[in-house]
Amino acid sequence: MKLAYFFVFILNSLISASVNADSLPDIIEKIKGSVVAVGTFMPKRSPQSIFLGTGFAIGNGRLIVTNAHVLPKKIDHKNIEKIAIFVRENKKVAVLEVKAIATDKVHDIAILQLVSGTLPALKISKRAVRDGQSIVFTGYPIGMVLGLYPVTHKGIVSAVTPVALPAIRSRQINAQLLRRLRDPFEVYQLDATAYPGNSGSPVYNPETGHVIGIVNKVFVKESKENMLSKPSGITYAIPIRHLNDLLIKNNLM
How far apart are alpha carbons 93 and 39 in whole angstroms? Predict the structure, then answer.
């Protein structure tokens, strides 16, 4: 009798694993509709669109999350430059105007709002993240050079680690790093490779599609790899709880 139960347990485990493996393409297909390119648009400029990073829709479908450093430092209002997101609609690229409504420069997070329209929204995870957990992130690693086609990478959380570590020599400590050393916070170190265009990409659970973090290619790396002459290809992500805090602070939840 015990042997029969054992075989039933093994069979159920195999079926469950198969379902999870087969569901990833479906999860990615749903995620892609919520992932956008972030940049600026100017009608009289050539090119009209400039890509700066990746973002994703949350909440009511009007809110777009990205990294704060992805946003342009200046906007040419005189020549009608606008912050915009770019999405694929019926094999064409649609340009949608957005405005920045909240930023957290400490954790490098920005929230944008669509001027009109909505997008399918991603759900935010409430589960704790552990070392070794499987993750997936989707974004635009080389911008729109090859067209607006989101790319997905899969890996694990290699470590939950402080954002800043003391430099070996005092000359390696700059003012920005010193501020982060005074008030460090944890980030996720990932074993999947991201590229500059991936900044702002959602990092999510491959089984549920719920977002656990935001890819950060510049801000974290400057702190973590300050003492390296040849920075590694390690990818970092900002935990989603900092986005939750920003949403609550600005009454967006």
Answer: 13
Gap between the Cα atoms of 81 and 120, Å rounded: 26
Q: Which is nearest to 190 in space by CA: 142, 237, 125, 240? A: 237
Instruction: With residue 223 as reference, give the H or E element that holds it.
Output: helix 219-224
Q: How many helices (H) and strands (E) does the chain have?
A: 4, 12
134-249 has which fold?
Thrombin, subunit H (2.40.10)
Instruction: Report pTM.
Output: 0.82
Instruction: Spell out the domain ranges in the chain.
Output: 134-249
CB atoms within 10 A of CB 28: 18
Confidence class of residue 92 from pLDDT cuts 50, 70 and 90?
confident
DSSP label of 124 = B
**How does pLDDT run across 129-179, given as a tens digit for each residue?**
999 999 999 999 877 776 788 999 999 999 998 876 444 444 545 555 555
Whether the Cβ atoms of residue 61 and residue 146 lie closer than 8 Å to each other: no
Q: Which helix (H) or strand (E) holds 220?
A: helix 219-224
pLDDT beyond 90 at 247: yes
Strands (E), 105-162: 109-114, 134-139, 151-162
CB 156, CB 132: distance < 8 Å:
yes
Q: Which residues, in sequence order, are bridge partners of residue 45? A: none
Quick one: which of 67, 189, 218 has its CA closest to 129?
Answer: 189
